[in-house]
Amino acid sequence: MIKLKCILFAGFVVLLPFFLWAQCLSSVNPVGGTDNLLVLDKSSIRVISFYKYGQSNSYFEGSSLSDYRYIEKADYNFLSVILGYGLSTKTTLEFEAGYFLNKRYSYVGSSHPHTGRGLSNLVCLVKSSLYSDHVNRFYITGAVGPKIPFSRNYRYANNIQLPVEVQPTIGAYGAVISSSFVKEVSATGTRYFLTNRLEMNGINKNSYKLGTSIYNSFYISKHLMFSWLKGDWTAIVQLRNELRASDKLNNKIKASSGSTLFFISPQINYVLKGDWYISGMYDLPVYQKFKGTQLEAGTGFTFIISKTFML
Questions:
Q1: Separation between Cα atoms, residue 162 and residue 271, nearest integer Å
Q2: Which of 27, 118, 145, 248 could be disulfide-bonded to 125 (CB atoms 3.0-4.6 Å)?
Q3: What's the pLDDT at 36?
Q4: Class of domain 2-310 (CATH, top level)
Q5: Tens of pLDDT along 52-106?
Q6: Are 250 and 207 within 8 A, CB to CB?
């Protein structure tokens, strides 16, 4: 019965993206990798901190480059912390919070960019171990919880309301559902895992509703074991799909909002002194399809540090 529930849950999460016509993401994709997947040991604390930079400077119409020019460059610098606590052997509490150092639109022919900065959202998750097979080393976890904006009001600069796209938070409550499927092959030091995350958003005080976001990532992780390589290194290759349904304003679909994106993200991980995990990841878009004309999903990189503490 438990196995049947796990199979049905996996099928729901994997197939869900195909029921939505999705759109481009203006939010920051949560960090993937070998951390933040399974539940923690009881009474342990895991801290994951990361910095992400992303940028774009071209437009797409559908799946093709467009010669349209309005924004010369869009970029952001984002800091985030994910704090986990092992409530029991099967349940972990997680708290995610982020801060935009800047979220900027630079316009063609203008020396006055629009720049937003500030706290984004707080996500509180209850993560549960749904299935564990220690013999075959296969594990499934699921998590659910609310998304709470740090502010309900739009930011202003020079007495001008900033565009929605550079606001550090849309100012709406929401919910998050996520899952992780992990398969380990100890003999070869290889790990396969699939992560899925669904973010649903409510309507903010300005009658704006951000489209539902879905993140799907498949990883292959390989522990590097070479005589000439010193230290504990792991190479990871991630194929990520990012989807979002159309935004709405005053209950009407916003034009030029909606996309399907695919990225390849190579990652290298190093373990320092046995328990400090340091990673670097580079995002390279390989397929983009938008509804209407929108800014491309450009390249980006992420730097991650994590550690688990036993209380």
A1: 41
A2: 145
A3: 60
A4: mainly beta
A5: 999 999 999 999 999 999 999 999 999 999 999 999 999 999 999 999 999 999 9
A6: yes
